[in-house]
Amino acid sequence: MPTATTTQPPAGTPATTGSGLARRLVPLQLMAFVQAVAFWVPVEKLFMTEIGFDAATIGVMAAAYAALVPAAEIVSGVLADRWSRRGVLALAGIALLIAVLVGALSQNVITYIAAALILGLYFALYSGTVEAIVYDTVLEETGTSTAYEREIGRIRLVESIGLVLSALAGGWIAAATSTRLTYFLTLPPVVLSLVALAWFREPRLHETSERSPLREHLRVTVRAIVHRGRLIPIAAASVTAAVILQAMYEFGPLWLIELSAPAAYYGPFWAGIVGALGVGGLLAGRLHLERRLSVATVAAVMGGCGAVLLTSRSLAAVTVAVVVLTFLVVVVGIHVSHLMHDAVSSTIRTGVASGISAVSWIVFLPFALGFGAMTKQTGVHTAGWLLAALVVLAAAALLWVALSRRISPGTEPSLR
To answer: Is the CATH code 1.20.1250.20 the one for domain 217-405?
Structure first.
């Protein structure tokens, strides 16, 4: 019976050159780029306040889709492993298209929360799936996972470029016309992303093993995460990093609101956040987080960023802290993602990744509610203590990973 270890390419399949791998991933990179062109994102909070949101209802909205995503994550992960990862990414693109359209048409809080729930479905379908499809493509083309951090970093880089360009353009469009128009202008790039995805040749490593019954598949997926605690440190670091990253996306602009930043500042601020996503992807493999000194340095800088967000009333200092913290959690996320993918079979890879991601959304749910409520009552700097506590936990989890033995392929539970 097949085992839950790193699946190798079929016997007799020659490894291709790096240029062959790069060419194969071009359609996926193009999809990631145009899907990241979201003119509405940098001015979303402004649009939301225009239709009746406040800090508390923003927290409720974030919590609403955080409640939806975990169940959808698990379903999408199993679907991607048992059906088609490219198909699941196509469903994600369709969900994004509908979410942006509903958002563009929203006139009140309830309608926009409905758009947010559909957007949560997009996140559930996309997260975990794109990492698994890149990992399997690297493995299928080269016979090793060595290039994974580089290639997923390139995906993050092109996503970041799309987000930065659209953030700068979105701020200008909103200032010149209206925030609502930025939503409508985002629809054509989403359609183009589906066209680009159709050109991508999906890896088939997850189909090389005998298909197990669904119940057995779920059992092995769960065991792969908790069996003897091998993935627990990795999961802890992944979850805390993901929650911090989501907090930066959702609540980072609240510091600007409290500090009375001008509307023109939102575009560059958001460009800095999404630019950190790309730089983090580009440099993820170069910070050597397998070394304890590097881990200690990253943990210390993360703590310093949290302290700045608690105490500073300077727009420049807050911006630097948010951007640097975003950069570091992206690096941490890619590093632990590589360790996780190395540890499990392609037949359950997306399910395991989605399961861990689902836990991050479960943790984010009470965090979002608490952060939103505290911000409304006492201000974002006081609510920042919740973020600071999360940063400490993330740093501790990263140190736990570094102190733990690196997971070796071939030791996970078997499908029997």
So the answer is: yes
Q: Is the pLDDT of residue 372 over 60?
A: yes
Per mean pLDDT, which range of 44-58, 303-317, 333-347 is the poorest?
333-347
Residue 60, pLDDT score:
81
Query: Per-residue DSSP letters for 205-240?
Result: GGGSSPPPPHHHHHHHHHHHHHGGGTTHHHHHHHHH
Comparison of pLDDT for 152 and 7, the residue scoring more? 152
Q: How far apart are CA 103 and CA 187, in angstroms?
A: 11
Q: Under a CB-based contact definition with an 8 Å cutoff, are residues 166 and 185 in contact? A: no
Q: Which long-range contacts (CB under 8 A, 24 or more apart) does 309-315 make?
A: 309/255, 309/381, 309/384, 309/387, 309/388, 310/381, 310/384, 310/385, 310/388, 311/381, 313/259, 315/256, 315/259, 315/261, 315/265
CA gap 245, 252 in Å, rounded: 10
What whole-number distance in Å separates Cα of residue 374 and Cα of residue 344? 40
Core vs surface per residue 352-366: b (16+ CB within 10 A) or e: bbbbbbbbbbbbbbe
Domain boundaries, the chain: 17-201, 217-405
Region 17-201: CATH code: 1.20.1250.20
Lowest model confidence (mean pLDDT) among 82-96, 142-156, 323-337: 142-156
Quote the strand ranges of 288-385, DSSP E.
none
Distance, in Å, from the CA atom of 327 to the CA atom of 295, rounded to the nearest integer, reads: 14
Rounded to whole angstroms, how far apart are CA atoms 310 and 29? 37
CA distance 398 to 387: 16
How many Cβ atoms from other residues are within 10 Å of residue 386's Cβ? 18
Contact 240, 395 (CB under 8 A): no
Q: What is the average pLDDT across 36-60?
A: 86
- pLDDT tier at 229 (50, 70, 90 boundaries)? low
For residue 224, give both structure tokens.
Answer: 């792969």
